[in-house]
Amino acid sequence: xxxxxxxxxxxxxxxxxxxxxxxxxxxxxxxxxxxxxxxxxxxxxxxxxxxxxxxxxxxxxxxxxxxxxxxxxxxxxxxxxxxxxxxxxxxxxxxxxxxxxxxxxxxxxxxxxxxxxxxxxxxxxxxxxxxxxxxxxxxxxxxxxxxxxxxxxxxxxxxxxxxxxxxxxxxxxxxxxxxxxxxxxxxxxxxxxxxxxxxxxxxxxxxxxxxxxxxxxxxxxxxxxxxxxxxxxxxxxxxxxxxxxxxxxxxxxxxxxxxxxxxxxxxxxxxxxxxxxxxxxxxxxxxxxxxxxxxxxxxxxxxxxxxxxxxxxxxxxxxxxxxxxxxxxxxxxxxxxxxxxxxxxxxxxxxxxxxxxxxxxxx
Length: 363
Description:
It contains nine helices and 14 strands. By secondary structure, it is an alpha+beta fold. Strands 7-9-5-14-11-12-13 form a seven-stranded mixed beta sheet. A three-stranded antiparallel beta sheet has the order 8-6-10, with no helix packed on it. Strands 1-2 form a two-stranded antiparallel ribbon.
């Protein structure tokens, strides 16, 4: 069958069946039903199936008891509710597992022999250059196996969320407090966390940066208004984030309204307070493949990020996401930090699990 890719129209068709009768069958009627038809149209499928039924030899037609696979039989439940399940208290399928504590999360899976634990080293300054990362004291702690940094990344130093690096390289820009600088590997999670606190980073202020400034950061709409940096929506430059339900004539309608209310509504910032901290475990597999067990809202994004830092194809990364203990957006992209850090460490060593403490889990 030849289909024009742009129009999705079948221009030629030849259908031959074998093994369904005493001889090879050429389905002329089915071919005719497909030619010059849109192959993605459900009506084309219905017509071609009807023609195929006519093309089949009569002795091959199924008996009545076996026609259910070829007939559409409408079925209406006698107690069908046109508004259901709205308003019904239907429990979540896994609610009993969750409520009883039987549900297992990424960090609950028993460790295998030889598993290493990673603790991320986070920046303590913002808008600075990273000039030195002293890992000597951390490496001297009993149980510490390695300290992984940007120099150990075989692929692209990016977490898949724009151009943000997984680990800030030396002489690289530290844009915010809590940016990952490296990963301490140890034989236990407690040792890794302790050693991560012993890593000392040396910074210098950003100089003559064309984008970042040393002024106080603008963190609210009120501050943006006062500084004159709030970008208004204009005909030449519309709001970059259009909201659903926008009306281009709001001002005119308010002006002609019989009653007008005036005031201010303020909303505070949002914390993605999920119950389960960020956690990922990466298992090296055969043929340069990796299995990633992670708590995420975006398995596809984790797959792309891990493949990028490792320098492998997407098919080499198998992401398993059984459940996320809450997310609210916080596990949409930030989970990439744990997953990619664990992947780099697993690439150098063996199975690695990385869990982020709550003190840094809300960035």
